[in-house]
Design goal:
The protein is about 35% helix and about 20% strand. With about 725 residues, the chain is of the alpha/beta class.
Length: about 725
């Protein structure tokens, strides 16, 4: 039998198409009646926001490759042009599905609950008059109509802005002109009618909204007096926002980033969204002047740019949203003892949002106030608004401590916020660095150096997620605070690498990208490969792309190693291929919380190696980012991680299984009749603190067997029943 070529493109799923499939799973949550109604609306807004980012970054990158004549093929073998064709075909179908979900399912369901999103034509004349007054008072002053003709150039259309393409006729000259009116993003996209029409008697909790662009379209005669406004059609453009920065040539990275952010609005157009009723004349004007092709155009029969539906999710209708919850604080931190005294005795492992993120904030705030703390070093990636961690770091500097902070300015779409906080930290006297040239700093580390009676001790917090109190309630992440001497020493070496010229290559316990993470990950995969059928590997990550890691997993599967991959987003590995990946199972879990934690489990003949951290198995993470994976060594924390993996592997409610053809199948569809689905996130949120027993032992990983063994077990069970 000839050896299988593990580089064969047929063994890999295209990254971009897998990304679209992830967003399909997000979209499917819109139609899931298990979610409260406004949460389903939220999933539709998330889908559209995700697709906006996909076009701004991924599609724009492919289009740039086509323009430069690059024909390099990724592991799956598709050229950039072939990928763009496939994206347009799948994207068109998916956007149609999203619009249908809004028009046929969510909008009627909202109306049943008293939340009405109306078209202008549905309004009574009294309401239209009220809206005309609102237009005159609040909208008209901020509008700027821009005409396009031989004496006026085509106006610049900024990224993700909503616009009206207006067709006007000059009655004196009998000439047709094109004009563009930008819908102001400073006003609510969904205009509430209730405050404008207080005389209308409405049932309790009834709210009515009208789309802002329709209000503007109905009052365009005020913008074009003396002209005949024939029609107006909404459209929206998406531009390339993936910034390339030559750091070696940038004297001041902060100023360079600010300039690049200003240029982001002028990137090449990669998508044009229009109303399907837009006539060919208007389409051609837009296509020609925006320099897009017909395959960049996406027409819809519903509202354009439905990421605006976040506005509805903000409504005060708690009965239509997920039930609130109170994150737990680990019992070791509820004694009232100082956090440093606790950490001298115990590590603290936190699984947010099920566990509270507050202990991390308390840790930094305690360090800022403690007179024995000499220094704090921290990496910051995504901060969010008004971050308490940043205020604690500034307070520490006021208290005379040495504070060094690595702020990643290139955290995509958080650049402006990070620049703002970097400047605030610098004004407070904090030493701010921006990382290593050519690498994005993605690791999550906080190091506290404290003087104690027996000498200097280091405390370190390491995590999979950001120091962001908002996302800590929305993303599932893992973090650990420890006083482990060797991890503290490794953290010091990482910060020396980030802020100085350290060339450290030997870390005591950490796996650090791009230094030693890849070689260690491959080493432990190969270790399990040597164990053959006694081997076991479990990865939980956001995405799996790296061809070298995938080939190593294929070889492990061929050796009989049982492999479970819990990959939330895109996965380029093709499971269930005979002779290659028979022993690999891939699950994706999409639920109330965004699965963001990364866990790497290697059975190691009964004494598992477990690593947790910020890195996904992707080339960008392993080769072009500073990442850290840290070991879970003490038995209490090891058992916590094993329990978490067991819970996720047993999920049958929110899990989808990836098949060899790239198709994801909801596991709930394959459940035996009468079996109750198990929701991992709900159990972690509520069940683990109740007396309710899960339908499995959460302290033990589920056993594995191949499909033939499962079939044999079913036949044996049936034979016993007959007997």
């Amino acid at each position: 039998m000839s050896e299988i070529d593990l580089r064969n493109p047929s063994l890999y799923i295209n990254r971009e198409l897998s990304n679209i499939e992830f967003n399909r799973r997000v979209l499917e949550e819109c139609d899931n009646p298990e979610h409260p109604l406004l949460e389903r609306v939220k999933f539709l807004a998330i889908f559209h926001g995700n697709m906006d980012e996909f076009f701004m970054v991924r599609v724009s990158g492919l289009k740039q490759q086509v323009l430069l004549g690059i024909t390099d093929r990724p592991a799956d073998g598709l050229t950039p042009r072939e990928q763009l064709v496939a994206i347009h075909r799948t994207g068109t179908q998916l956007f149609a599905q999203a619009t249908n979900s809004w028009l046929k399912t969510l909008q009627p369901a909202l109306a049943d609950e008293g939340i009405h999103t109306l078209n202008y034509s549905q309004l009574k004349s009294r309401q239209q008059k009220k809206l005309a007054a609102y237009f005159e008072r609040d909208i008209f002053p901020v509008l700027t109509p821009l005409v396009f003709d031989p004496t006026h150039p085509f106006p610049h259309i900024s990224n993700l802005s909503l616009n009206l393409a207006v067709e006007v006729r000059d009655p004196e000259l009998d000439e047709i002109h094109f004009a563009r009116v930008k819908v102001p993003a400073t006003l609510p996209r969904l205009v509430p009618l209730n405050p404008l029409d207080p005389d209308e008697l409405l049932p309790p909790a009834t709210q009515k909204f009208i789309w802002l662009e329709q209000v503007i379209a109905a009052n365009l005669d005020r913008l074009f007096p003396g002209m005949d406004v024939r029609a107006a059609y909404p459209f929206r453009v998406t531009r390339n926002t993936d910034m390339e920065i030559q750091e070696e040539e940038a004297d001041d990275l902060l100023l360079t980033m600010e300039e690049n952010l200003r240029q982001r609005h002028f990137g090449r157009v990669v998508r044009l969204e229009i109303d399907e009723d837009t006539p060919e004349t208007i389409r051609n004007i837009l296509i020609s002047n925006l320099k897009v092709s017909a395959t960049d155009v996406y027409a819809t029969n519903g509202p354009v740019g439905l990421s605006s539906l976040w506005e509805l999710h903000k409504l005060e209708r708690p009965e239509l949203k997920d039930e609130g919850f109170q994150p737990m604080v680990p019992s070791v931190l509820r004694s009232g003892d100082s956090i440093f005294n606790v950490l001298q005795r115990n590590n603290v492992l936190l699984h947010t949002p099920y566990d509270s993120f507050l202990p991390v904030v308390d840790f930094v705030e305690a360090a800022a106030e403690d007179p024995n703390v000499l220094a704090i070093k921290q990496s910051l990636y995504r901060l969010g608004p008004n971050p308490p961690i940043v205020h604690a770091l500034m307070k520490a500097r006021e208290n005379g401590k040495q504070v060094a902070v690595l702020v990643e300015l290139k955290a995509r779409f958080d650049e402006e916020s990070n620049i703002e906080w970097a400047r605030a930290l610098e004004r407070a006297g904090v030493h701010v660095a921006y990382g290593v040239i050519g690498l994005k700093t993605h690791c999550k580390l906080c190091l506290v150096v404290r003087r104690e009676r027996d000498g200097i001790r280091r405390y370190v917090h390491m995590a999979t997620g950001n120091y962001n109190t908002i996302t800590a309630r929305l993303y599932t992440d893992l973090g650990m605070i420890t006083s482990d001497e060797e991890m503290g020493a490794d953290a010091s070496e990482v910060f020396n690498y980030l802020t100085g010229y350290s060339k450290q290559v030997n870390y005591r316990k950490f796996w650090v990208a791009p230094v030693n993470l890849r070689e260690n990950l491959l080493r432990l995969i190969e270790q399990e490969t040597a164990y053959g059928r006694n081997g076991r590997i479990i990865f939980k990550a956001n995405s799996l792309v790296d061809p070298g890691i995938i080939r190593a997993l294929y070889r492990a599967s061929q050796a009989g190693v049982q492999i479970d991959l819990i990959i939330r987003g895109f996965c380029c590995l093709r499971p269930e291929v005979k002779g290659v990946s028979d022993n690999i199972r891939v699950k994706s879990i999409v639920g109330r919380f965004l699965e963001h934690s990364r866990i790497y489990y290697f059975h190691n003949n009964g004494t598992p190696d477990i690593y947790v951290g910020s890195a996904d198995p992707m080339p960008r993470n392993i080769n072009r980012r500073v990442e850290v994976l840290f070991p879970i060594e003490d038995e209490p924390e090891r058992q916590q991680i094993i329990s978490i993996l067991a819970v996720y592997l047993h999920d049958t409610a929110k899990a989808h299984r990836l098949h060899s053809d790239g198709r994801y199948e909801p596991v709930i569809n394959t459940l035996p009749e009468g079996e109750e689905p198990f929701n991992s996130q709900l159990w972690l949120l509520y069940g683990r603190h109740s007396e309710e027993e899960p339908p499995f032992d959460p302290t033990v990983l589920p056993p594995v067997c191949d499909e033939q063994e499962q079939e044999q077990e079913k036949k044996e069970e049936k034979r016993k029943q007959v007997a």
